[in-house]
Fold this sequence. Notes:
Elements: E1 2-6, H1 12-21, E2 25-29, H2 33-40, H3 51-58, E3 62-65, E4 73-76, E5 82-83, E6 88-89, H4 92-101, E7 110-113, H5 121-131, E8 141-144, H6 154-160, E9 163-167, H7 170-180, E10 188-192, H8 193-223, H9 228-235, H10 258-263, H11 271-280, H12 282-294, E11 301-305, H13 320-330, E12 334-338, H14 352-356, E13 361-364, H15 369-372, E14 385-388, H16 395-400, E15 404-407
Parallel strand pairs: 1-2, 1-4, 2-3, 4-7, 7-8, 9-10, 11-12, 11-13, 13-14, 14-15
Antiparallel strand pairs: 5-6, 8-9
The chain binds ligand SAJ.
Amino acid sequence: MKICVLGLGYIGLPTALLFAAHGADVVGVDVKQSVVDCLNRGSLPFTEPGLDDLYGEAKSRFLVRTGPEAADVFLIAVPTPLDPATKVSNLAYVKSAADMIAPHLRRGNLVVLESTVPPGTSERVIIPRLEKSGVAVGDFLYAHCPERAIPGRTLSEMTGNNRIIGGYDRDSTDRATAIYRTFVRGQIYQTDARTAEFVKLMENTCRDVNIALANEFAQLAEECRINVWEAITLANKHPRVTVLNPGPGVGGHCIAVDPWFLTENSTRCRMVSTAREINDSMPNYVLHIARGLLAGIRDPTISILGVAYKGNVGDTRESPAFKFLQLAENEGYAVRCHDPYAAEFAHPLMDLPKATAGSDCIVILTDHDCFRRLDPATLQVRTKLVIDARNILDHEKWSDQGFAVRVLGDGSS
Ligand code: SAJ
């Protein structure tokens, strides 16, 4: 079986390598010459636990190109970004992937969409473009198999998680199921393409709304002078309650984006967009805390520790650190940034000693494990203030070193 995977990013590349490692001949396609060159040199364009070993295993069955070629299966795993001004999905890449496949599409081929799209996109946008091949859907098979893997655990989740597969018709669903069975150990649940599109968006929206609730709880608790972290621990002792963790906001290319795909065609949704607004406002809340702590300090410098959108990854896409940085600079603060995982950011990244030397306030924005173990005694700051927006530090250790510790949601304001 020959599979052509379009899009060699965080989802497409691991998926392509998993298929190759399980016996398929895979052609990976990326329009970015730099990605193709990198893979052709034998290197990976990004890091992810286990990906190096998998690459070694799969290499002999994996070729990389800048355009597709005839295959049995075409898999689309390209980005579907959000237009920041309109909050509407940008389908340019999935459209272009479908257009690139059409000239190579033959009767009996299967096209799989993994990219996240608004409900109805397969029928309205992708299938009609594929039919420009002259082959009608039904004569080629089509299924949506939304990805569900979490960055940092991509490979174990791709193989271990349950999957949803929604086909254009029964043949499509069954064929796609058989192909994913080669490496998926979780259950595969079958449905139609439109439902699969909706389910994927529901999953990420559910998480976003629950994080927004935790963030609202944090602010309400502070108004009541209560420590939200203790309150959450206690509430979660209830058998049917799971409150998530408050924080400086929600980032990443999925949870901060996908809820808008669900609402873009709706005239009545409110909770989903309100949750987005709450999560997007969290950098303002962290800045509000900083402003209170820094009042009276002349020409303050703050040190942002962690610009990645979440712990132990280097991905900064949609990271709340961007907004916090802008707000802090607009406030007149000098800002220094440190992140041991991130390669680039909107502001120069420095090593820890440089980023904290002479600082007036350390702000922890990302829950990297290495920050949990930070030794405050080694930091040459000017003012001993720290805002822990993730509640990850050893607070006693920091207090013992003379730091005033302010945890987001601790109720001490
Ligand atoms: N976050 C909090 N509090 C929490 C949990 C997360 O503030 O209690 C923040 C994180 O710091 C981060 C953001 O939310 O900024 C999202 O992180 P995440 O770990 O919840 O999720 P992602 O974006 O890395 O991956 C999600 C996953 N979806 C769900 O868990 C429902 C993953 O399974 C999807 O495959 C992925 O989106 C995707 O690609 O759609």
